[in-house]
Every structure is written in C-alpha cells, then in structure tokens.
Amino acid sequence: MMVKTRSVIATLATAFTFLCSSVVPVFGFNQSPAIPLFRTTLRGVGPGGIPVALPDPKKAPVTGVTHYTIDIRQFKDQILPEGWPRTTFWGYNPTIGLGGNTTPTLLGGIIIGQKGTPIQITFRNKLAVENHILPVDTTIPGSEPGVPVNRTSVHLHGGLVPWISDGGPNSWFGTSGDVGPSFLNNQVLNPGANPGEAEYYYPMNQSARFMWYHDHAMGITRLNAYAGVASGLIIRDNFEKALIQEGLPEFIEDGGNEIPLVIQDKIFVGKHIATSDPTWTGLKDYGSLWYAHTYDPSRWDLLSGGKPLPDPSAVPEFFADTMLVNGTAYPKVTVQARRYRLRLLNACNARFLNLQLYLADSSKEGITLDASGNPTNAPFLNHAAGDTPNFLQIGTEGGFLSKPAMVASNVPLVVPAPVSGAVDPSLVQKSLLVGPAERPDLLVDFSDVQPGTDVVLYNDAPAPFPMGDPVNDYFPGLNNGNSVNLTTQPGFGPNTRVLMRFHVEAALPPKDPTLKIGTATNLARGIDPNLVPWESDRVPPAVAKRFLTLNEYHDDYGRLIQILGNEANPFGSPYDMMATYLDYGRAPGQSAMVMASRENVKDGDTEVWEIYNTTGDVHPMHFHLVNVQVINRQGFDSLSYPYVAKGPVIPPDPNERGWKETVLNYPGTVTRVIMKFDLSKAGIISQEGKPIEVPPSPRTGGAEYVCIVDPIFRTIV
C-alpha cells in the first residue's frame, strides 16, 4: 500500500474515520503479455520515423505568422515487435510532414522552430467516436455525464504563451463546436474556425530548449496523454547553433547525432481480458492499451464510510509494466563509437526514472542483478565526461544549465528512511533522477566502448517514489515481493528496469570535433538572466513570498487525491468547497470546472514560492506560463502545524541550476523557487504589427496573470 497521507487535517480525520479494511470486489491488476526485449528498433525523428510537422503554404489568420495544421485522431501503430498486433492510439498527426511523412504515429507531430519566429497552429479534433479507448470515470470534475469524452485541450509544457493558448484544463474543445468554459482561442485568433478546430499562438520568445505539447482537458488529461495525445516542440537559437563549433553534435534536422528519447510506461491487453478483467470497458483487442480502472485498496488508500466506489474509477497514480522509448517497446538502436546528444523526456504518468548506463553482459536482459537487486555489470564510461561513469548534462526544461553538470550513470538508488515524515534530498544516492515531465539534455560519447559491445539504459527508481511498492517493480526472477517476476521468462517483459539497448559500432569518418564543453563552460550566456546568483541558496529578503502546501486527502468515495493548499487554506481542505469540487457525484454540469483561481499574480512581479510537501511521495510540480529558479530545500515536521522549516538548508543539485518548469518536491520538505512574471514574451502581434488584446480568463476574476501549478498526471486531470 502506498505511503499514507501526512497532512494534519487528514491525521485528525482518521481519528473518526478508520482506514477501510472491508473486502472490495476487484480483479487482479492486469499485466501485459510476455513482450520480448530488443525486438523493435528505436524510432528516429523525421522521414521513416516519428513525423516532423512542416508549415502550411498559407500564413496564419489574424497574425500572418507561420502556420501549421495538426489533426488529433485515432489510429493504429506497430509499437510492439513484428508479428504482434498493432495498438490503437489517440494522437497528433501533421497534415504536412518532413520528407512527406504524415503516417499517424505515436508521438507524431514534432515541431522544430526558431527563437523569435512565432508560429500558429490549427488543431483539428478528429476524434469522432462515442467512446474513449480507455474507461472514463464520470464522477470526477469535468467528466460528468454529457461532457464529450473526445474533448481535448493542447498545452505546450513549458511555453511562455498568451493564456488563451496555454491549453488550460477548462479550455477544451470537442468535435462539434462544443467547448469548455474558458475556451476563447478562436475568438481572438481565428473567428472563422470550423467546429472542432482550435487556434493556438506560440510566440517562441524563449531560448533553445526541448518542450512537449500534450492534452490537458479537465478530468481526462491522465487518460488522453496515456492514450498518445503528446508530441514534442524544439526551439533553436543562435547560441545553441554556435555551440556546434564547441563540439555539440549537429541538429537532428541536419542529420546530426542528436537523439530525442521519450520514455513512457504502458500496460497492454492480453488474450484473455474478458476473464482476467470482466469489468473492462476499453478496447478488448489483443495488444490494446490497458489502464487501471478499479480502485483497489490493496494498492491505494481507501477510507471507509464513503459512497460506493464507481467502476470505472480514477486512481491516485498509475504505474505500468512495459517500457517504451520513442514509441516502441524495449527498442534497440545502433550507434557509432562517437559523441551523441540525448534529449530525454520522462512522459510516464507517474513513474520516476533513475537512469543508468551499463555494458551489457551475456544475459538476455543484458543486466544481471545481485542479491540486493543491483546490477553486477561493468559501468559505461562516457568519453564526454572525461572517461568516467557519468552523464554530462548540459540542459533541462528551461534550456541550458548555467554550467554543465556531471551526473552519475552507475549509482543504484538508495533512499534514507524518512525522519518525521521528511526525506532529505541530499542523502538520496542516485544517478540521473528524472521525474515525470522533466527533460535532461545530455552529452554521451560511446568512444570508450569496444565496437560490437551493447550498452543498456537501466532504471531502478521505486514507484511510487521514493519509498516504493514492490508490485510496481518488474524484472524477471527478481525476488522482491512482486510475484509476477517469478513467472516472467528471461528476455521478456514485464520489465520496468531495462529500457533499451545501444549497439556500438566503429565510428566512421570524419572524427568528431574536439569537445570544448565541460563543467566550467558558461552556458548562462544563452539563457534568461538569473533572479538570484546561480550558486546561491539564499532567499532574497525583499521579494514577496507565497505559501503553498501539497496534501493528500480523500474524496466522498474515500479515494486518495492530491490537493494544493495555500495560506488561507493550508491543508487544501475541501470543506469550504465541497459542493463545487469534491462532491463529484452531485456536481451539477460544469460547476466543478469553473472554480475561481486562487494564485493570481501581477505581470512584472517577482515572487518566491515556498511549497511544503506534507505527503509521503516526491511530487513533480509543473508551473504554467512561467519558468522558475530553484533556490533551496529544507525539512519541516509535516505532522505539526504551523509548519516551521528547520535543519540545514539544502542547495539545489548541480543539474537543477538552470531554469525549470517542473520541480521535484520531496516529502516533509519545503522547496523554495523564485520566478518573475513577464507577459512581454507572451504577446500576440497582428499582421499590421500591432499588439492584440487578449480577454481576461473567466477563472481569474479579471486578474492580469494566473499561474497554474500541476502535480502532473494524477487523479483530477
């Protein structure tokens, strides 16, 4: 069972409500069939791989900028090995693709643009189906009966955009002209849009970086993103281009050794789904996607006394058993013994990754574990990191780091026991830790690897992170309490530890240029100016501060949910908003979807946000419409309110010393970030060169700016 709620209000609640011990009729958590490892090839980006979107011949309406048209549709894709059935997805599909490639493909629709060159996109909702491909819980806000299940809202994750193009949860659009209460996109950008179309404007006034765009519709984000509604957007700039002379690999669109690696976890329907999961209402075809739809109290906390559990039911967090990289299961790829730029995205719904590289051994997984469950393999030595077992990380979500950082590539995860509910981040032994939505930018050089050798990308992060539950940890023969492992054959899944395999061949001429990028290289020249010195962990005394808490609570059904609290409502208590938020079963129409925003800020202001995590899990928090700088972390007693930070101040990790928009919040720890709200980068300019006024959001009460904070893909979205 996952770590329990730690907030004071929940502790008091358990004084009169006991943890449910009654038997709830649920069937076993579905497991994927035995999918073989290394039988698929890693997909590249471009012709023959994941489609790259190209602009339309005509310019955009209203603004006259470069315009794209991208459909959102249902399709089948061969992501499992040859001979296995194709899997049905929802996803993005460009109408014009690089090299003529417009084949509907998982992760398709990647956009590559230039800083300072705005783009506009018409997204066309072609999901003309009555049912979702996954079971939909109609008891949570935004998914009430009558709201279209094929609704979608496009969010550019990390984008500084006008709020109408942010793709907020309430800005969804369906196929027939039905829209959410905050949808004003077409009113400003394309008054002549057809039903089912939505217009988005991206100013592209940000430094070089790898972003992604995905569905964000209220009540269904977790399902749509899992179903495949996600792709990438890369911004280039002159600073990044100049780094090629310093040894940065050439860009992928120019045929260079730049490889995006998008990592996801999925579960697939087996041949006997009718008997193994008789209440399953999703697609029943062999090889289809499966998602948890029955609230199982052996996996997730459940308080008694609530209303009868629905089925389908949302679950607090979902961990799958099969790893995909670039949209195929357990792929292999051939690389040369030379330098590569690996641009990672953790696109899992909730699973953290502790990524490592090892030389493969002769086992079918390429990895052998000792009695403690750790690899016995020889470490991979990275020539780009001085022939050491380290990644050389040069960037994160907000572009380049201030300086590159050495990050271990062969350290198994060790988490200290919590003290008063707190996990000290400085004591966590790890390699490259990547939370959902985080995007490390890495230099990896295979020059030290003997040609003919294989290198395995490996993960051992517990799920939920950091304390974990063995039922979410899959590896053949691993005797960790997960009975599935004892029946899994070598060389097959379920397996969440082995992600993919690199096969190294001799390098062909010409040789790579000398690498002049190292830990002393000043990359801060290519990103926005810092608000506090990059090496500082001190909070500026004169900056306004905002108090937030991250809590776990239980809804009217007794289900565990995540709630954000603030100074006025520190526990995220639902008591003051029961009728419009938590009483899902009685929420009339869209009332639960239009709550006024509580974190409204002013354009031009600089603020420090202190986020107190009262839960037992590390939560990645994503900031909309602003990037943040991590200042420090500090422990506090999450069972004693008012919360008082105590103990040593913990500086950010070296690979956090850059601009971030997804920040890890550790249990019993306050995380302090600083940000400046700057709408000047998010304006819309007309064809005549004049600013276009954007109407205020219906949720802000007329405020100039609203910053949405997401706990990524959890229950509510």
Automatic annotation (TrEMBL):
What InterPro entries does the entry give?
A: Cu-oxidase_C, Cu-oxidase_fam, Cupredoxin
Q: Which domain of life is it from?
A: Bacteria
Q: Where are the transmembrane segments?
A: none
Q: Note the coiled coil stretches, chain numbering.
A: none
User: In the record, what terms sit under GO molecular function?
Assistant: copper ion binding; oxidoreductase activity
Q: Where is the Plastocyanin-like domain?
A: 597-678
What name goes with this protein? Multicopper oxidase domain-containing protein
